[in-house]
Amino acid sequence: MNFVDNKLIRKAKAGDMQAFAELVYQYKDKIFNLAYRMLGNTQEAEDVSQETFLRVYSNIDRYDEKYKFSTWIYKIATNLSIDRIRKRRTTYSLDDYWNEEEGLDWYTRLPNQSIGPEESIISNEEINQVHKAILNLPEKYRVIMTLRYVEDLSIKEISEIVNLPISTVKTRLLRGREYIRKEISNKYTTVDRSGKYEMS
Which intervals hold domain RNA polymerase sigma factor 70 region 4 type (predicted)? Predict the structure, then answer.
C-alpha cells in the first residue's frame, strides 16, 4: 500500500469523512472503469461504483492493512460486477476455442508507434473489437481478462482478488486470449500485400 492510501485509511477508520472522500476521489474513476469494462453498461457501472464505496465505508474497520487497499476495493467491485453478470444467465464454454498449438498473442495486433495513419485507424477498430469480445466472454474469463488487460493488474493481484490459484488464473488468461484472438481474426481479412485490412 502506498503511503498516501495508508494515511487516508487510518484517518477514515478514525471517522475522518474528508479522508474517506479523498479515497473515493482517488478510486472512483478506476472502479467505474472496471465495472464498465465488465458490464458494458454505464448505469450498471455507476450502480456498482456507488455500492462499492458504500461497502468500503461500512467495512473499513475490517480492512487489514497488511494487504493493498487497491486489491481490497477491486475485489469488492469485482464481486459486485460478477453478481450482476450472473443475473444475466449468460453461459457457454471456451473449450471449442482452445488450441494450445495456436498463437496466443492477440495483443500484438494492437497499435505500435511504427504504423501509419490508416493502419492506426484499423488498429483502433481492433481495440474496440477486443473490448467487445471481452464483454462476450463467460464471467469467469471476462473478470480475469478485464483485471489483467484493462486494469493492468499483476497475476498475483488477480489471484488475490478472485480467490483462485495463480495457475488457474494463467489458464483462464490463455483461454480468454485464444477466444479473443479468434474473434478478432474473424473480423478482419487481408485484402492485399500492402497490409491493408477490411471488415469481413
Answer: 128-178
Can you say whether the dihedral through the CA atoms of 131, 181, 107, 86 is positive or negative?
positive
Asked which of 56, 87, 118 is the last residue of a domain, the reply is 87
**Dmax (CA) of the chain:** 65
Find the CATH number of the domain harbouring 42: 1.10.1740.10
Q: Same structural domain for residues 174 and 149?
A: yes
- For the chain, the residue count is 200
Picking from 30, 60, 87, the residue at the C-terminal end of a domain is 87
The residue range of the domain holding 47 is 3-87
Contact predicate 97/178, CB 8 Å? yes
- The CA-atom distances, in angstroms, between 117 and each of 29, 113, 196 are 30, 10, 11
pLDDT digits (tens, 9 = 90+) for 23-73: 999 999 999 999 999 998 999 999 999 999 999 999 999 998 888 899 999
Indicate the helix (H) or strand (E) that contains 196. Answer: none
Distances (CA, A) of 88 to 39, 138, 143: 10, 11, 15
